[in-house]
Structure prediction request, 392 residues.
Amino acid sequence: MPDTKSSSNDTRYLAERWTSRILRVGVWISASFMILGLFLTTIFPSSVVPFPTNPSLGILAERIFSASFDPITLMFSGLVMLMFTPILRVITAVFGFAMERDWRFVFVSSLVFLMLACEIMYSLFLKG
Amino acid sequence: MYLLAGGFIAGTFGALLGLGGGVLLIPFLVIVLGIPMHQAIATSIIAVIATSSAGAAMNLERHTVHMRLGMLLEIATVLGAILGGMTANYLSAGVLTRLFSGLLLFVSLVMLWRIQKNNGQEKLQTDGILPYTLTDQASGTELRYTVKKVPATMLVSLLAGNVSGLLGVGGGIFKVPAMNILSSVPMKAATATSNFMIGVTGAASAFIYFAHGHLNPFVASTAALGVLAGSMTGVRISRKIHTKVLTWIFAVALMGISIQLYLR
Prediction:
């Protein structure tokens, strides 16, 4: 006979467990990028390619995918990943609550995500 | 190196005193390092996202975060943070500095209130909404409670989000007392839930500061890593030391810093 109490608890804490993992992974990946960027800045100061202003996400992606791992790009990538981590945890919560079949909180989490998405769009529009 | 050390100290004492790193980091960046106010706020927001995310990951596993309440209140804090972030970019550094000095004065008073509060026993309410069971790690017991007066706490959360976006702090200084006093959430759960919400509130305004070019990658990365390491250390040593005297000292020190910032 399955342990109903345990399986019910497992479902109940699903959103929390997933969210916790996403946050942990997000912080460690972004911190690694920042540490690497700072390390390269200290060891090879000449490798720093300064940006005129804060780069747009498009320029960042372009630099990363062209394997231009200069220290500033690495630091900015770490910072942007860190900024996206809480947003990713909101998306995770939407799916977690959906798995728990708590539709009221699927709606609440989706609303928070929608607000964040609109704000990011506004910021990207502002950057041009 | 000063920046890393300053971030570490701000993070350590922030965790010991139950404050986000931002309250201590911004005065350090502005007064000691002479970093412009807008850049200091953007840096603090990044540090706040890092410490909140790391802390929330741990608290979620311990089941001290009331995630549903947090998500509900985030509707208000995110809206507040977006408005705060937009407003801050139209205000001068002088106005922001004076607003921040007012906030520090308020924070020091709340710190003194918390000392009094910790002396009393909490009575759990079970006739509200969103029931949750808080697991007390020390005793292993489960405390069941419910939440009351959510609209009132949402209103305070809107203000907290606004202050967070405007001045780069977490806003827990408003949310924790509101959750505890208005919504009858146990202090431990209120602190963990507030910390959980801070990352999303910070992210809401961080993109606006990023778009306005206030994010210096070197300053933000160094300070964020320093605050992150400091807050982890602070959480560890907080179990071993008595923080009451420390809170008194910092409450008075923050009043002094508040006056110094106001007179700048």
